[in-house]
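Ticket #4471: structure output looks truncated?

Reporter: J.K.
Steps to reproduce: submitted the chain below (71 residues) through the standard prediction queue, then opened the result file.
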Amino acid sequence: MAQSEIERMPIVERCAGCGNIEDNVCRIWISPAAKWRLGTCPSATHVSVEKVETTEQKVRVGQQKQKKKRG
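Returned output as attached by the reporter:
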């Protein structure tokens, strides 16, 4: 099936300003609304992802002894 035969859904409001939009459709995703359901679209060029750094470190409570192999 050629790419021109695929019916693409129109973009949603949150897609406005993205660099992947051509003729009111997304050139990457067939259904852009599905990519915004769980948060930010992974291909959005107009949204910057903020990386949150945590200062917490894992604390080791104890160590388990490993069994020695008999051979």
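Triage note (M.O.): checked the attachment and the full token line is present. The mean pLDDT is 81.
Status: closed, working as intended.
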